[in-house]
Design brief:
By secondary structure, the chain is α+β, with helices and mostly antiparallel strands. Helix content is about 40%, strand content about 15%. It has a two-stranded antiparallel sheet with strand order 1-2. Strand 1 and strand 2 form a beta hairpin. The longest helix has 10 residues. About 0% of the residues are buried.
Length: about 40
């Protein structure tokens, strides 16, 4: 997750010492980068 934050791929919020993500942002990141498994 840190790499995604550093690369600007995943927006986040910092509250105290915690880093928070919107569920919809995480879902969008996963959907946009989804690749089906190779099956023979």
């Amino acid at each position: 997750m840190q790499e995604y934050r550093n690369n600007g791929m995943l927006p986040y919020y910092q509250l105290g010492g915690k880093i928070l993500y919107k569920e919809s942002d995480v879902e969008k990141l996963l959907e946009d980068n989804y690749r089906k498994a190779f099956q023979e």
